[in-house]
């Protein structure tokens, strides 16, 4: 059975009127300052006194003074009310211009390639915003953990988030070092991976991620085995360059290794396309100016799109 609830009167009701009367020692001058009638001021003060349970003013036909209760109430209420007004101004300022602390949850691998150049230019453009970067592989609840936004592969962004693309879609490619292939045949089909050392990635959930492929338009997943398990792409990339085994990684992340001859592509016809990297955040109505400024900065292409590795 639904109950009826009412919002009780707050302890601050009437305090501003009380302070104005106490300052001017006049109901009429307080009413003029507040833009209301003297009778309205008197009514508010009477309600406040009734709620407190003590008379706050001594009223005569010629003057208004404070009772002892009124003096004590004034000594505590005035600084507290001024602090509340100041707090409101601070909050209002954050709602009107880009300022304050902007907290971002990002994968470690994007920090040097995406965030270092992007944050440098953003901080120059918006000096009143402080940027905090929490680099982690974990997928977190932005609201619960106090973050303004996150950066992840599109496939890991929840449907109820607003997502802004940071990169175009790109492929997941299998690579190995020339040293690894010395004396080994290169795989020609995904079934050939059974004869190869494959570097594996452990998800934040604890599960080992299978390798994903596109076989003539059909998405397939293959469980692989090998000598190394890592929980971030950077470690897997370094191990692949050193010849520990094959790795399946975002194509932008291996571009430098391929061009330098440290890595070679295999199984290119089976490389799946993924959606790319996204900046994501809760609903549009909750955007503060600091986040809106960062989103606009990202969209302007300050960091150079298309060069960002996809990570979780």
UniProtKB/TrEMBL annotation:
GO molecular function: DNA binding; DNA-binding transcription factor activity
Domain of life: Bacteria
InterPro entries: LysR-type_TF_proteobact-type, LysR_HTH_N, LysR_subst-bd, WH-like_DNA-bd_sf, WH_DNA-bd_sf
Any Pfam family the entry gives: LysR_substrate
Domain spans labelled HTH lysR-type: 16-67
Keyword vocabulary terms for this entry: DNA-binding, Transcription, Transcription regulation
Keyword Transcription regulation: yes
Keyword DNA-binding: yes
Family: Belongs to the LysR transcriptional regulatory family.
Protein name listed in UniProt: DNA-binding transcriptional regulator, LysR family
Organism: Paraburkholderia sartisoli
């Amino acid at each position: 059975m639904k109950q009826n609830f009412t919002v009780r009167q707050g302890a601050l009701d009437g305090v501003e009127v009380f302070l104005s009367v106490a300052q001017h020692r006049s109901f009429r001058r307080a009413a003029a300052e507040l833009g209301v009638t003297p009778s309205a001021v008197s009514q508010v003060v009477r309600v406040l006194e009734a709620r407190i349970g003590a008379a706050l003013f001594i009223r005569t036909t010629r003057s208004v003074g404070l009772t002892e209760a009124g003096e004590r109430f004034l000594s505590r209420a005035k600084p507290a009310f001024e602090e509340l007004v100041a707090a409101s101004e601070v909050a209002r300022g954050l709602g009107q211009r880009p300022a304050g602390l902007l907290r971002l949850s990002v994968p470690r691998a994007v920090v040097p390639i995406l965030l270092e150049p992007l944050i440098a230019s953003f901080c120059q453009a918006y000096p009143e915003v402080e940027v905090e970067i929490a680099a982690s592989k974990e997928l977190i609840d932005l609201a619960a953990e106090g973050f303004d936004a996150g950066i992840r592969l599109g496939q890991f962004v929840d449907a109820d988030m607003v997502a802004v693309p940071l990169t175009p879609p790109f492929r997941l490619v299998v690579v190995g070092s020339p040293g690894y292939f010395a004396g080994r045949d290169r795989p020609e089909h995904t079934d050939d991976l059974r004869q190869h050392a494959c570097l594996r990635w452990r998800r934040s959930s604890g599960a080992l991620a299978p390798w994903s492929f596109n076989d003539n338009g059909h998405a397939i997943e293959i469980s692989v085995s090998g000598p190394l398990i890592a929980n971030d792409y950077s470690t897997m990339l370094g191990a692949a360059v050193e010849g520990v085994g094959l790795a399946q990684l975002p194509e932008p992340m291996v571009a430098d290794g391929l061009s330098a001859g440290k890595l070679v592509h295999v199984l290119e016809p089976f490389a799946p396309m993924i959606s790319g990297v996204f900046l994501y955040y809760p609903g549009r109505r909750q955007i503060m100016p600091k986040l809106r400024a960062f989103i606009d900065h990202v969209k302007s292409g300050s960091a150079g799109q298309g060069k960002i590795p996809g990570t979780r």
